[in-house]
Design brief:
- This protein is of the alpha/beta class.
- It has a domain at 48-250: Spore Coat Polysaccharide Biosynthesis Protein SpsA, Chain A.
- It is 53% helix and 13% strand.
- The protein has helices at residues 3-33, 61-69, 91-101, 115-126, 145-152, 173-195, 222-232, 253-272, 284-298, 300-316, 321-342, 350-371, and strands at 48-54, 78-84, 105-109, 131-135, 158-166, 205-209, 236-246.
- A seven-stranded mixed beta sheet has the order 3-2-1-4-6-5-7, sandwiched between helices.
- Strand 1, helix 2 (61-69) and strand 2 form a beta-alpha-beta unit.
- Helix 8 (253-272) crosses helix 12.
- The termini are far apart.
Amino acid sequence: MTVASHFFWLSLGLVIYVWVGYPVLVFVLASLFARKRNCPEQASDPFVSIIVPVHNEEQKIASKLGDCLELLYPPDSLEILVASDGSTDRTEEIVRGFAARDSRIRWLQSDRRVGKSGVQNLAVRQAHGDLLFFTDANTALPVGVLRTMVGNMADPKVGLSTATVFFGDAKDAVEKGQGFYWRYELFLRTAESDLGILATGSGQALLVRRELFLPLPTCYGDDCIMPLDVRSQGYEVIQEREATVFDAMPHSIEGELRARIRMTTRNWTGTLSRPAVLNPLRFPLTALGLVSHKLLRWLTPFFLAVIFVCNTLPALHGQLVFLWWLQAVFYLSALVGWALARKQRPAWVFGYSFSFCLANVGFFLGMVKAFRNQKIVTY
């Protein structure tokens, strides 16, 4: 067997493991060994600080504050901090109008642009809550979501609770593929949560114990680094099925690609910055989950390139021809999906292969930025 053959089979095996083998493994383990939650009745409602980072959100902030004020939670156990990263539109005016009618709302202004994580750190320093609830300005909050998430914190082993995010109706090829991809992602997160090994979350809604919060580096995302910090301190991260929030995804190919690049760059470097939780001697299953669910997935485009290149030469000599044509048809179908999406036409089954390839292009470009040590601190 040649060196090229070794690389081909190794890369193929890794791709199959990451996208099929690991999900099956974690599902079986969760079915057999799911953790039982110990959530006794709380004597009183803990004080919660809702933290909303903003940058020029005049179109969304009124609706967001309306959602926060309608949450089914005792008013005297709640405060809302809107932390601005250099907003220059009417966001401040709108927030101060709300604050004049409800003293629980406070406006915090950063002296300079410090990024989302920077203003989140600013808000935490000003917060009074025992629990910190981080949520984005464009995330819609049903009235019961906070109450449900706070219920998880009655278990002393739980350090962070993250909501289940829905992105609405699928309207084009990107959203259809992302809908399937997101269901796949939630399936993995839920299984890992049931096992008590989850170490990721959704930045649209994160509830964390104040004493476990560590200042966020500005170059990493809160959805990546905050769960890692909680797990490294020995507490569990919960993916709460019943706590649902709603967000919008990019409606263009370019927007989806930019989001994937940003996520990959920030989360790759963020994950590697917390080597303790990657230590298999201390957190064996969590380390396995992070490597399988995250790190190897972000390396998928490199494995796919190796598979195609190492398959081409044998195919020219009549070997493994079927596998070569299988790849060719898959990538051609992605091109068809791309062409249909560009024309804003239904992509049918082609949308799934296109979305998979689009995600992996984002992974590749994000990894290139990470390898070049490029920092992303903006939204």
